[in-house]
Design goal:
The protein is mainly α and 50 residues long. The chain has three helices and no strands. The longest helix is centred in the last third of the chain and has 29 residues. It is elongated, with a radius of gyration of 15 Å.
């Protein structure tokens, strides 16, 4: 549901088969990369502020 919650697709697209598991996996991978980058940026900023 993360792609839907993040606005990358509509729930209806999941239900009606417009998107397949590859599409969902690709969107989830992209969201993971964004989350990882945000975490690393946060940690680096913390390190610099010490």
């Amino acid at each position: 549901m993360r792609p839907v919650i993040k606005g990358m697709c509509k729930y209806e697209s999941l239900k009606n088969g417009e998107l397949d598991l590859f599409d969902i996996a690709l969107m989830n991978d992209a969201l993971d990369v964004v989350a990882d980058n945000e975490y690393l940026l946060h940690k680096e900023r913390e390190r610099k502020n010490k």
